[in-house]
Amino acid sequence: MRVGEIMTREVKTAAPTESAEDAYRRMRLHRIRHLVVMEGKHVIGILSERDLGGSRGTTLRTGRTVGDLMARDVATAKAETTIRQAANMLRGRTIGCLPVMEDSKLVGIVTVTDLLELVGEVIRKASTDARWKPVRRMGRWPRNAEPGRARS
């Protein structure tokens, strides 16, 4: 599976001159934890909720801009990057997201949350596929079995 299959295509961005407080409010409004910082068409940073101090970061944000608080060393991925490669980059750099680039253009973002949702879906699917299902014979359920319950 590839990053392009799970990435969010509608990426929320910020300008480096935007106030940190406005960026935080926007993140809360959209229920997201990362903004890609753009200067023109170029990705120049990532701003995370943690960079903004979270819910108790009012003092940190006051009088500061996105450019003051953003992380400038941005790791990126391509749509063809495998999920395993993306997970290794996120874990290895201890970061929460990867902007997805194609021909120097921002086309999406993949986050740790996206990867965890994928893992949860795979596990859910595997557990329902492997679940024991009783066979109903002559109008009766097998001994010690209840309809809809898996046997341990």
Give an account of the 3D structure.
InterPro entries: CBS_dom, CBS_dom_sf, Diverse_CBS-Domain. This is CBS domain-containing protein. With 152 residues, the chain is α+β, with helices and mostly antiparallel strands. The chain has five helices and five strands. It has helices spanning 20-30, 58-61, 66-69, 83-93, 112-130, and strands at 13-14, 34-39, 42-48, 97-102, 105-111. A three-stranded mixed sheet has the order 1-2-3. A two-stranded antiparallel ribbon has the order 4-5. Strand 2 (34-39) and strand 3 (42-48) form a beta hairpin. The model has no long low-confidence stretch (mean pLDDT 88).
What descriptive keywords fit this protein?
CBS-domain; CBS_dom; 152 residues; 18% strand; 5 helices; alpha+beta
**Major sheet strand order:** 1-2-3
CATH classification class? Alpha Beta
Helix fraction bin: 25-40%
Please report the number of helical segments: 5
Helix-strand pattern: EHEEHHHEEH
State the shape. globular
Distance from first to last alpha carbon: 32 Å
Q: pLDDT average, as an integer? A: 88
Keywords: CBS domain
Organism: Anaeromyxobacter oryzae
Pfam families: CBS
Domain CBS: 10-57, 73-120
Can you describe this structure in just a few lines?
By secondary structure, the protein is of the alpha+beta class. The protein contains five helices and five strands, in the order βαββαααββα.
Secondary structure layout:
Blueprint (H helix, E strand, L loop, with lengths): L12 E2 L5 H11 L3 E6 L2 E7 L9 H4 L4 H4 L13 H11 L3 E6 L2 E7 H19 L22
Parallel strand pairs: 1-2
Antiparallel strand pairs: 2-3, 4-5
Protein name: CBS domain-containing protein
Pfam families: CBS
InterPro entries: CBS_dom, CBS_dom_sf, Diverse_CBS-Domain
